[in-house]
Design a protein that fits this description.
This protein is mainly β. Strands 2-1-3-4 form a four-stranded antiparallel beta sheet, with no helix packed on it. The radius of gyration is 13 Å and the shape is globular.
Length: 71
């Protein structure tokens, strides 16, 4: 999946792709961001955007949840 990172003003500041296990790493300056995902073939819609605060020198975990349509 393609992951998009936006700053507090809504401007895209980074984008990346997840690995086959869904993990991704995007280096960012300290600050507050919103992380969202683009549509993925075979899945329904897009995940809800997630707010994240990044601190200097540390990693932050974000989980984006796609709907598989399986009920």
């Amino acid at each position: 999946a393609t992951v998009i990172v936006r700053d507090g003003g809504g401007t895209e500041v980074a984008r990346g792709r997840t690995a086959s296990d869904g993990a991704f790493f995007i280096g960012l300056a300290a600050g507050d961001y919103t992380v969202s995902g683009e549509p993925v073939e075979g899945l329904m819609g897009t995940p809800e955007a997630v707010a994240v605060s990044v601190s200097d020198g540390s990693a932050s975990q974000v989980q984006l949840s796609y709907d598989t349509g399986i009920r």
